[in-house]
Here is the input.
Amino acid sequence: MKRFVAAVGACALVLGGAACSGVSFVDGVTIVNDTEYSANIDVTSKVGDGWLLLTSVEPHSTTGVEEVIDQGEKWIFRFDYVGKYDQEVEISRRELAQNDWTIEVPQSFEQRLRELNVSPPP
Here is the structure.
């Protein structure tokens, strides 16, 4: 249900309330988090037409999101830890497809949180 609401909300945001019939989707995106921190993950396109909340992923876990709105040739993922720090990663659609639609929470995300003296969750 959460994914459906996100997709409908994204359609309303992206298309200004127009019908979603012209929106294309990819089957799914997998997020791998090998860090000590949970992360909220959003995605947008190179056009920057608004962020779409994908999911949250716990430390040392993998989460899949089905039927994600296709962001086009450039996908920008934003990884956020409870508003303490966020990091963006840009990846081409081609590279994402070559990686079997899998993206990893960057290790630099964890490193920066440690530099900011943010303790990992218990």
In short: Helices lie at 2-15, 93-98, 107-115. The chain has a mean pLDDT of 88. The longest strand covers residues 25-33.
